[in-house]
Amino acid sequence: xxxxxxxLAENPFSVLLLALPLTFAGQxxxxxxxxxxxxxxxxxxxxxxxxxxxxxxxxxxxxxRVGALxxxxxxxxxxxxxxITAVQAGLLELVKASIxxxxxxxxxxxxxxxxxxxxxxxxxQTFNKRNASRNAILLVLAVVTLIVPSVFSxxxxxxxxxxxxxxxxxxxxxxxxxxxLGLFDASHSKEGPLSHALPKTDAPNWSxxxxxxxxxxxxxxxxxxxETLVQLAEAVIKGFGVSExxxxxxxxxxxxxxxxxxxAVQMALxxxxxxxxxxxxxxxLQIALFVAPLLVxxxxxxxxxxxxxxxxxxxxxxxxxxxxxxxxxxxGESTWLEGVGLLAVYLIFxxxxxxxP
Length: 357
Hints:
The chain is mostly helical. About 80% of the residues lie in helices and about 0% in strands.
């Protein structure tokens, strides 16, 4: 019993693994689509946490450069798997909404909660002002790469609709190149926004083969549950009365990133606000510069071309999230009230997205 308590204390999401057999039982026994969808969503949360822990553990066995590459590549593995499954099913609006939702979720929801909990416990918290400024610039650049195709696509389509696809692919190539340069910088800098590995004292004490095994099993589990989610998405949309857009922009990012969100809050509670902000910002950069362009090429291979073109609501949310988070972090200090402000903006967006037809 003591070992079980210790295991649950070190892995608080592990109890949610009970959702896996319940999901299988629900499919076998013919439970309602909504019940199975909820169970599958819950089941992804601990598996995403294990993917993150296994990645951090593997990184501790490698050089700093390889470790940075592992964290940068697998940092959003769970969400990438979900979106690839959605692309395969042709749910492109859900995929694009999840890209937007992940970015605004990290910049508003995660940073908001981190500042609230850290501020309540420690008062005014400080972090590296220079890094905050540099990260804000990178965020603006990353979001601009998403905005430009959206703004120019309509005018380009009036002349030749095929050129819109060319623009999307070209932008995707440039974004991946920028991401590669970011990884190069991260491999030479311990403070790079694409290398937010946890301190080794916080890493799980697994052997390298245990980490590989857990990473493989967790990935397979996420693939299975993602297929379940996507298959039931239409039934859930009708059952809950929500849109595919809302499902993608709010629910999918939350499902895939809950574990990482908790880590950011934990770091704030430990008064490690530098690391907390790095986690939120680096995850946003990875989504914008790696996941989004990678999905463009994967979608081509799957026969469902995805264009980097977002609607005006998504563009407004992206711009607002980047500007507000940059302003809040510009002075290198954070308070619980600033966190409340970030969270309030996220809730306003969530309500607006829910009410969209």
